[in-house]
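ok, trying the design again with the full structure, not the truncated one.
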């Protein structure tokens, strides 16, 4: 299949995409944030007339996502900086120190999963709590390999728990296909199903593999 020629109105857009696409992966080399690259690209689209300000204003879902998701990300960051997450992790660790490792590990896993309601990023959650909960689990006697694997599995399962749980979540929610209540209800049901599968069938499989 042969492509047609680039139209006159498409040339500014092609010229914009080139620099911005090269700037995004090169941000670490040039000390250029991805946000700066993105806004530069949008500015070039406006200047060259490919988009108008009316086109941008009409994207209400995008503006809504930008505003409230930025607030949630900032709140999660402040919880970490103010030591709330560290205090929470230490409290759970102390609370499970006097029980058997099986019970303690179930408690730690459930708390680790549902504490994602406090986070707007999978990466932030893992960075703040994974190491602390893994250390707590092994301290109670849980097999290290099994504990590391299960907490790692959980770290990839809570991305759909809420409409702000991960980067793609607010974008998908902004499409308006489901209501807030439907998202949270479905996220909770999916989380419960994942717990049953990964801590039920998964635990038996890890037992068969000899990890505990």
């Amino acid at each position: 299949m042969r492509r047609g020629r680039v139209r006159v109105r498409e040339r500014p857009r092609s010229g914009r995409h080139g620099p911005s696409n090269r700037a995004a992966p090169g941000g670490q080399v040039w000390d250029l944030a991805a946000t700066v690259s993105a806004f530069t690209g949008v500015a070039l689209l406006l200047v060259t007339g490919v988009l108008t300000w009316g086109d941008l204003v009409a994207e209400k879902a995008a503006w809504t996502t930008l505003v409230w998701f930025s607030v949630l990300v900032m709140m999660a960051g402040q919880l970490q900086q103010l030591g709330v997450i560290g205090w929470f992790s230490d409290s759970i660790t102390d609370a499970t120190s006097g029980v058997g490792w099986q019970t303690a590990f179930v408690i730690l896993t459930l708390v680790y999963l549902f504490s994602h309601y406090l986070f707007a990023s999978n990466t932030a959650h893992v960075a703040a709590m994974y190491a602390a909960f893994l250390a707590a689990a092994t301290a109670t006697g849980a097999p290290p390999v099994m504990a590391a694997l299960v907490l790692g599995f959980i770290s990839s399962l809570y991305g759909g728990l809420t409409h702000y749980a991960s980067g793609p979540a607010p974008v998908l929610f902004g499409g308006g296909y489901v209501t807030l209540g439907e998202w949270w209800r479905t996220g909770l049901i999916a989380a419960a199903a994942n717990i049953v599968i990964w801590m039920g069938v998964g635990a038996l499989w890890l037992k068969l593999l000899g990890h505990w």
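Keeping the full-length input from now on. The CA atoms of residues 104 and 182 lie 32 Å apart.
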